[in-house]
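ok so i was messing around last nite and threw this chain in just to see what happens. nothing serious, just curious
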Amino acid sequence: MNKQGIVFVGLNDKAQSADTQGRGHVPVLMQTTAQRRRQPPPYRQTRRPPRRSGTIYLPAKAQEIHRRLCQLYGCPIAYFHALDPLSELVSSLLSHRTRNADSGAAFKALRALYSDWHALLNAPTANIQQAIAHVTWPEQKAPRIQSVLRAIQADRGALSLDFLADLPVDEARAWLQHLPGVGPKTSAAVLSFSLLRRAALPVDSHHHRVAQRTGLIPAGMTVGPSHAVLAAQLPPDCDAQHVYDNHEVLMMHGQNCCHWRNPACGRCPLLDLCPAGQGFMATHAAGSAATGPETPASS
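result:
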């Protein structure tokens, strides 16, 4: 329950279906075989718990988080790239587990070294690896980039991803994800960050951490599966800018406030919506009471 007395039901909250309550319900262990066959399994009887007075479900909580963070970081957020989709794909492949400054420098080094992506495709792999030496795992990324370019060339007959503009977002992402080393984050990044400007939601580690701590996704859900869950919480009619803003503000909040170690919960505008943050603050308060007065985390 938040400060306004509104209960936000998260994915970890337990709720019992109305179909399994009240008169006429026969416990599973007492049902005959015929009775069990006539009834669908419990998880198919209801997609979400019955609405209770004062309850707001996850899409509303996600939208409130979006609203507060947009107010904090200033939406709409300007796009940071203006690349064609193929160049954005190369940039995204370089960025895996790598600081933005290092992956950006590596991308610029490739553009300076090779006149176009055809030249990079036909270049010695060792030369590419040397050019991107400062990214994480250059020995893997150099051959992978060439493999991706080779697959695009073989499938499309040209080194271009401009055709993705004509596909629905789900189909465009599925096509990208058949390429070696391309997962949901990269496919969404190509569609969202490139000049295609499509409504696809990437989720990076910072975005994912904020979503987990606020209860938008279960604590055990990894980054890959979280893409579909978090995208489903956005308004169905939201445009590409809204989707981009959602990723950017959650990512920036993870970088600037919701740190992996020592999150600054004391100054977080989402604290009343964040079960993890409330737990961190309670633990901090208990520790302060045991050791003496101390200011809560606010830096």
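not much to say yet. Residues 264 and 298 are 5 Å apart (CA to CA).
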